[in-house]
Design goal:
Blueprint lengths: L7 H26 L5 H26 L20 H24 L5 H30 L12 H27 L5 H8 L5 H27 L4 H8 L1 H28 L5 H31 L2
Helix pairs in contact: 1-2, 1-4, 1-5, 1-10, 2-3, 2-5, 3-4, 4-5, 5-6, 5-7, 5-10, 7-9, 8-9, 8-10, 9-10
């Protein structure tokens, strides 16, 4: 395959910042709407969002090859506002990470007072809005990049956004037992959630939201592919072996279809204990993340080859 300006590092970057936004949305929604039942998910998402966001900045610097040469060059993005969409996106990303970090601090040092609760609600709501913006912005930016019809479909940003929300949600759930193991003293509620995670309602209920987001993403993906069916880049998704494998096998198969089938089978139980199905769901969470990265790479690569 020809040299790509935006390759695997860019795909990983889009995955990280998208999942960070998705985790922020999951955290805020769980805290605001969960009425205390999903605080483990809210707390996990609150910690995960700034971590993934900061990791995305690292991948950007690695991708630009400036990490060891001039790591502070990221500051120069402010001088190109508002004419550069990349600069706007970088500033949005930094602002999101700052608010996500504040939200994480509020959770880490929270006190059971009304003021603390209200502040966390407000910060979580702002984080939900910023989280949505960072999930959809990469698709909007690419839609205007180089005048590519393959990226110019109005459905393209929504494909990336919904998939980012999906990966952020499942990674936030996946992180509950992980954080509970490694920082139990700082996160006692996550430690308790870890102890009961196989019979806890959070992963089971998350399966429903996971399935809903998968169906929405499949609908947007079908609409997107239909809208770009006449482009040369679309043909590559069928004729290029790597892109075919990444998009159809990774993004569609591993990342969407298999987790949806597993969820539907889990609802039937089929005589298999609930704890086993939840373990399988956790494996599907990993597949969704892998499929997310594969799909982003396929769409990025295909769009650059013509």
């Amino acid at each position: 395959m020809a040299h790509l300006v935006w390759g695997w590092l860019t795909a990983i970057d889009l995955f990280l910042i998208g999942s960070a936004g998705g985790a922020a949305i999951a955290s805020g929604a769980a805290h605001i709407l969960g009425r205390g039942e999903y605080d483990a998910l809210a707390e996990s998402g609150a910690y995960l969002a700034p971590i993934l966001g900061l990791a995305s900045l690292l991948t950007v610097m690695l991708d630009l090859g400036r990490l060891t040469v001039a790591p502070m060059n990221v500051i120069y993005v402010f001088s190109h506002l508002p004419v550069s969409m990349v600069s706007v996106g970088t500033v949005l990303r930094i602002f999101f990470i700052a608010v996500a970090a504040l939200n994480a601090i509020l959770w880490l040092f929270r006190k059971e007072t009304l003021i603390n609760y209200v502040v966390r609600i407000i910060c979580g709501a702002v984080n939900v809005i910023l989280g949505f913006l960072v999930t959809i912005y990469p698709g909007v930016m690419l839609a205007f990049a180089r005048g590519k019809p393959f990226w110019g479909s109005p459905f393209f940003p929504w494909v990336l956004s919904v998939n980012a929300m999906l990966s952020g949600l499942v990674l936030a759930v996946f992180a509950i037992p992980v954080i509970g193991v490694f920082v139990p003293r700082l996160c006692p509620s996550l430690l308790e959630a870890r102890r009961t995670v196989l019979i806890h309602r959070i992963p089971e209920r998350t399966g429903l939201y996971m399935a809903i987001l998968i169906v929405i993403d499949l609908v947007f993906t079908a609409a997107y592919l239909t809208s770009v069916a006449g482009t040369a880049q679309y043909t590559l998704l069928f004729t290029n072996f790597l892109l075919f494998s990444m998009f159809w096998g990774g993004f569609i198969g591993l990342g969407l279809i298999i987790p949806l089938i597993v969820y539907l089978l889990a609802k039937l139980r089929l005589g298999i204990p609930l704890s086993v199905w939840i373990l399988i769901l956790y494996l599907c969470f990993i597949l969704i993340a892998v499929g997310n990265i594969a799909g982003r790479y396929a769409l990025l690569a295909a769009g650059q080859l013509f």
